[in-house]
User: Fold these one by one.
Assistant:
Number 1:
Amino acid sequence: MTFAVDIHSHFLPEKWPDLAERFGTPDWPWMKQLGGGKAMLMLGDKEFRPVLNDCWDGARRIEAMDAHGIDVQVMSATPLLFAYGRPPEQAAEVARLFNSAAREICAHDPKRLKSLCQVPLQDTDRACAELDRAMTEGHIGVQIGNHVDDRNLDDAGIITFLHHCADVGAAVLVHPWDMMAQQRMPRYMMSWLVGMPAETQLSILSLILSGAFEKLPRNLRICFAHGGGSFAFLLGRVDNAWRHRDIVRVDCPNPPSSYTDRFYVDSAVFNEDALAMLVKVMGEDRVVLGSDYPFPLGEQIVGQMIREDQAISPSLRAKLMGTNAARLFNLNGTGPTSPETL
């Protein structure tokens, strides 16, 4: 069977200290355990999301991986835990708390369970320091949100952090969060269905059109979740604007489509035609398997679409399932590897 790495999965600890009590401010996330392997993720006194013990039980995660034919799973925190809107010293303490919790889950099978840390991205110095600490703890990279308040990824402080990631060899997963225009999308999970893809496209274009990719080193390994959102499917519109409007290309010396070799996207688009277009736009080496496990909006049988799509050649399937991810996260060096050698 093709070696498989799922680069986009989430975790939640089974429990953690009362952050509202710790910091003396309301509306912190916490876990309400319901029994029977079920829980409710709370935000203050409001229900945020029902979850199962897949989130925190390493044995359960391995069981699901075996059932789905996944060799390695890369975990990252649920973005609700970022704490970007809190004082930096509190966000740094929260990051250490959840980063250590991730390593505890991975300890169940460290060859197959890998983790990305979180950092207090609102404070560049603290973010770099926590990244350095977390990498020594065993994390293989970092997950960041696609913005901090109104600061997009082209913000000078965030660019400095991304440069530091490249310097220390930390891969970066960018995940959308705190979606725009939520007051206009209060129902039907529209913030997830419309806001998330738009947020991800905004973050990619922020790096391209601002000229940030011209400043960042080419060894930066950065990936965008959910297939890069709406980026690939609207790239023709962006290129057209770049060609015909000088205000679009003022800081971007090359066509936007020429930067697709600077980043990766995951495969979480849930449609064979969409995946085919994504591969055509990004190239065969820049798409990696990502499921959004264990949440309901994720792929329910991880890797099923790639495995069963008869239009995908065996060589491309190997790249999408694992080879590209091994390169992105430097799993045992570069190129494909096997779970026995990780």
Note: The chain has a mean pLDDT of 95.
Number 2:
Amino acid sequence: MTSLNNPKKSKRLPRQLTLSFFGFSLSFLNKISIKKLTLIGFTFVAMPLVMALIFGANKASELAQKSTSAIYNVAQLTQLNSKLDETIAKLERSASQFVVLKDDELLAIFSGHHKALIDIIQETSAKQQDKVLKEQLTSLKAESDRIKELMLNENIDTFSLEEIQQEFKPLQLINEQLEKRSTFVVNQQVLDIQQTTEEISDNILERLYIIPITLLIAGVFIILITKPLKRLTDEIQLLEQGSFEQEINLHGPAEVREIADALENMRQRLHALELQKSSFIRHISHELKTPLAAIREGTELIYDNSVGPLNEDQQEICDIIRVSVNRLQRLIEDLLDFNIVLDSTSLHGLEKISLSELINDACNVRKLDIKSKNLTMKCNNSPYFVYSNSKQLSVILDNILSNAIKYSPVNGDITITYSSSKECITINIIDQGPGIDPSLSEKVFDAFYQGKAPINSQIKGSGLGLTIVKELLLRLNGKIEVIPARKISAANESGACITITLPNTQTDNEL
């Protein structure tokens, strides 16, 4: 059966043609370099423009030739009319003088004027293309020959002045007709030039369709060149964000494939290094936590006088051991958080998260620290949902809140607010501490950097908190900024405001 009798086969044909076209395009791109593709694109874009330029130049040359020819004809006809008038007038004058004076010398002068008239007629007739004008010149020549025969006739002596002047009337009439025809020919050539000019103008305007065709061709080649480069950029951004699992296999020009192969080799090496780092941190953290738990438990037993009372010096030593153990515990936790940054597998799986609940959970984790400084938490409890990774956001909020508690004064306030727009969601965490000098607003994100510790602070940091936050936000396509609290809230004369910005990808918020 033919495709006309088989609807399924008929519907499948356009799809097969489309796949064949894209297959041909892909095969073509894989066999050509960007340099050659650019050259081909330039050729295809320039070709219509060159053709239009050649067409315009030909039409302009044609118009110039017609204009030159017309100007020459106008000048020739103008000179013809002037010469004919002058020569005919001389011819008539010499004939009239001969009739009156009967002088043979005057007859010779007449013959000379007649010869000049014949030369003018023959020269003009040879150059003219107008048939009517040629016929009139022939008539003028015939009439001038008739008058010459009359002047050479023996009976010319019997002619009076009035009679000879009457014989010149037909010659003058033909000359007048010649002048009218010359004017008509000149006007006709002017109209012809005007019509040609209008036709050339219309043709040039019609050729303007070349512009959108050229732009379309340029757009196609721009897409062919930039699309593989855009895919390369996307792959590089994925590597920058720490996504090393997806294989890089791009099709396109030779240069793009070479870069893709280099990126694939780099991805494999980075992925292997990432796994090694993650494995090392996990193992070292586990190995440290096991003996640390025993040390911490033993320290607590001694501190609680479970094995007997301690004197003042022993109590002081026990306090030092206890604080150091807690600090070491915090360092191990920071290492585990930092491992989240290194482990790209923890960055997948977006989920719907209640922002208010996430903030409350972060505050509950730091409840003892908040209570120890008698801090007041002012949180925005409006229902708001964001699509992100809860584990990452928890680490981000915990580290920032830990810093805010650490630098807040006793009986101070910590304010947490959030707002949204079509593009992003902004979270502000504001404390009443000493603030951060603007010159250090970028340095605080460096690994292991620690600012001046607050007086009597019980919370010791590792210098990795804000580094972890910045790295995680980078992978979430977010950003973090440190600004003075007074720019956000007029009630805070001091303190710092940590502003977190995340892309707004949620779809069903209730805020």
Note: The beta strands are 351-354, 376-379, 385-388, 413-420, 424-430, 479-484, 496-503.
Number 3:
Amino acid sequence: MADRSVLTHPLFTGISTAHLSSLVGELARPWVVGLEGRRFQARGGARKRAPGAGARHQLVFVDRLVATLIHLRHDLPHAVLGVLFGVDRSTVTRAVGEVRRLLAERGFAVPDRPGLRLRTLEDVFAYAQAEGVELRLDATEVQVRRPVAGRGGRRAFVSGKKKQNTMKATVVADHRGRTLWTDALRPGRMHDVTAARTAGIGPCFDHFDLVQVLLDDGYLGLSRDHRGKALSPPRKLRPGAIAPFVELRERQRHDHSSRRITVEHALADHKRWKQLMRWTHRRDRLPDTYRAIAGLVSDRTATV
């Protein structure tokens, strides 16, 4: 068994010790409430012994949280984490599943607004309109395992751009590259515009008139449908255009790219966590994993 105080080092967990302490204070009670709810369902009724009676947990909540963070950061197998914490692999598997769900449900931190968290795309647009924030939106893909042969929908995960089996996440960031929101992941074959529309961005543009979102060339359909709100770079001129107009158009595209690049920095922060470099586990667990990691990244960047 490894020294558990060493395992809380930021090199293992990916977050500072102060951030870890705040997570323990925030998530300990929801974990206990959820645990009691699961036990109530398993028993089929109220408990017969007083709270605190019975066998003790082999992993206290702090150790469960640390094990989950190490798993997200370095993608260590559950069996290896079991050796580090001196428990069985199944105990780690259960702990990671419980804590990962809690991390995914936290939402995203708001800069300079401690205690306020964004959980839906409507929350992000409401915050942007109230604070005058110009949003940046982009999509990223995570490589996943190929579905088993013979199952329906096998081609849905084949990305036309990556030429791999992927799942796609739509991410919103602000002008400083701070993550504000990410959606439930979609199959990689889905177009970026379709993924954004499926997430409900159209009604948000209609309801929040003052919000502007910077996009890349992959979202020309959105910029056509929501002029003045969804801002894509100017189209390139055709060959043979007059040189001064070409130079002006290139400067405009460069300025747009320079303002939009911060969302790429946010995506790079997410991909520093090893599990998002390439996902090798069950695909239905990737959405919770991505939201959990993005929420942790947003906690750090919101205080910068």
Note: The mean pLDDT is 89.
